[in-house]
Structures are given as structure tokens and as C-alpha cells.
Design brief:
Blueprint: H1 7-22, H2 35-39, H3 44-67, H4 71-94, H5 104-126, H6 129-154
Length: 158
Amino acid sequence: MPRPVAAAPFAAAFLSATLLALAPGGQGPVTPPDLDTIRKQPDLQKRYTAALNFAASRIDAARKSIEAGEREAFVAELKQFLAAVEFTDETLRATGKDPSRDSRHFKKAELRMNEFRRRLRSLESEVGVDERSPVSDTLRRLTELHDQLLQDIMGRRR
């Protein structure tokens, strides 16, 4: 028997309140740890996933910084983003797995990097001419990392 339509808004509100209450300290959404904390994670697979999530949060922070007119913070966020993406690449390679044979984690990272490329292109078109250079440089390096990762995944197959 289908539920009444009036129960749907209540269920959504209840779920939201429950998720906020379960967050550490009950203080709202959880912020990702900083990159130094992520570096200490012993599990390499959890480490690269956390680094990708941190990188995504840095794009959001960069967007907020530029909207607030804080150019120095904007550039700093882009540098942190790039450091997180490079760390992701290092961590994946440290697993010792062959990307062309065991591509699951490599493909996940490649897809996220592709998402980041789209988001950076969008950000690049939204910022002023003076702020485009840091975004372009970051986008160029991200594209290099993405293309290398994709080449490794699609590389030699036996």
C-alpha cells in the first residue's frame, strides 16, 4: 500500500535532522580533514579517496574566495587543490598495482579528475581576466595528470 504524499516532506525533514545530529558534535556538515591528516592515513585506498574529496572541497572554497573578492585565498585554495590531486596520483602509484590490470581505483580517480577539469573550466570562464592565469595553470597540470592516468589505464593489455 503506497504511503500518503503528506508523509514525504516529514520523512525528508526527519532524515536531514538525523544526519545533522549524527555529525560529530551535532554541529552540521562534516568538513574534510586537511591534507596533512590525510597523509597520515595508513590505508592507501582510503587515503586517495580522502585526497580526492579534499580536492573537491578546495574547488568549492576557491569559488567562494573569488566571489568574496579574496584573490590571495583563491590562489591558495587552487594550490591546495593541486597538491591534493598530485598526492592522489602519488598514493595510487604507491599501491603497486598495475593500472591496466587492476583499474578500479585508478578509474575512479580518473573520473573524479575529469569532473575536476569540467569544474575548473567553468570556474575559469567565470573569473575575471586577472584571475584566469592561476586557474589555467592549475587546469594545465590537472590535465597532464589526468591524461597520464588515463594512458596508464588504457595502456598495454595482455
